[in-house]
Design brief:
about 300 residues, alpha+beta, 4-stranded antiparallel beta sheet, two-stranded antiparallel ribbon, about 10% strand
């Protein structure tokens, strides 16, 4: 049974009802747990250690200096006013004796002096001489004639844009071919050719896949003999005409890599041409027109 049921036991250690031994009531602090005791002991020990550290290490602890005292306000009592001296009355000045001014008599009137008018010098008149003007009229500036201006501009335009060569008529072409044949026959009969600085191309044995090109070089003392004869193959060119023109340009550049004069029998005049690489397109177009514009082209002369 619970100890609280032994109410009748009074001060006896044994219950008269059940006969059990009655436990004495717990004293104050007897139920304190061991953990609380340990915690209390540790806390007391820490406080003791802190107090001992502060006592023995007081010289190493940085002490915060107390704040400086602010300036105290001092009240100074005002000084007593000094007694002002009594104002002394000023002595009245004595009136000065007034002197009577003597009146001077007015001066006698002076005689009036009449001045005679002196005749002034008359101003001299300046004579103005006008500048001499030449009666001979100056020649007028040359008037620019409108017609001369138009003619000058027309000539300038023609110089910048040369007119294309006129087309050759059938009669002119026939006459040119006849003259060329006559000149060739005369050269063959005489056995010599006139000296010049040009060359002659001749195309023989032309087919769709090959041809032969004869070229007379720049030699003024040769007879009618072909110095060079090249065989032309179609190769990668689109047609045999393009291959022939390519070979001609190679032969021309071997002799004249720059500017040269071409004696065109198709046009009947000399033409200035260029064998430079940058002028290949223009030279190709000219040679195509020179050799392949007709069905039976004659030899071209340079």
């Amino acid at each position: 049974m619970h100890d609280m049921t032994h109410l009748m036991a009074a001060d006896s250690d044994v219950c008269p009802t059940c006969g059990q031994v009655i436990q004495p009531p717990p004293a104050y602090g007897s139920r304190t747990s061991t953990m609380r005791k340990v915690a209390l002991g540790v806390s007391v020990l820490l406080h003791v250690l802190l107090a001992a550290y502060a006592l023995f290490r007081s010289d190493t602890i940085d002490k915060i200096p107390p704040p400086k005292k602010e300036s105290a306000m001092v009240y100074i009592a005002p000084l007593k006013d000094k007694p002002q001296p009594k104002p002394q009355p000023k002595p009245t000045p004595k009136p000065k004796d007034t002197k009577v001014a003597k009146v001077k008599p007015p001066p006698a009137p002076s005689k009036r002096v009449v001045s005679k008018d002196v005749p002034r010098d008359k101003p001299k008149l300046e004579t103005f001489t006008p500048p001499l003007v030449s009666k001979v009229p100056l020649p007028p500036p040359p008037a620019e004639d409108m017609s001369s201006m138009i003619e000058q501009r027309r000539k300038q335009r023609e110089a910048n844009n040369p007119a294309p060569p006129a087309e050759e008529s059938e009669n002119d072409r026939a006459m040119r071919v006849a003259k060329a044949n006559i000149a060739g026959a005369q050269g063959r009969n005489s056995g010599s050719d006139r000296e010049d600085s040009g060359g002659v191309f001749s195309i023989v044995n032309q087919s769709s896949f090959s041809a032969e090109v004869k070229f007379k070089g720049w030699n003024g003392n040769f007879k009618r003999n072909w110095l060079k004869q090249e065989k032309v193959e179609l190769g990668n060119e689109p047609d045999i005409e393009s291959a022939i023109i390519k070979k001609m340009i190679q032969l021309i550049r071997a002799e004249k890599p720059g500017d040269f004069v071409w004696e065109s029998r198709r046009l009947g005049r000399n033409v200035n041409l260029s064998a430079r690489v940058e002028d290949t397109a223009e030279l190709t177009a000219f040679l195509r027109q020179e050799f392949f514009s007709e069905k039976r082209p004659g030899p071209g002369r340079r």
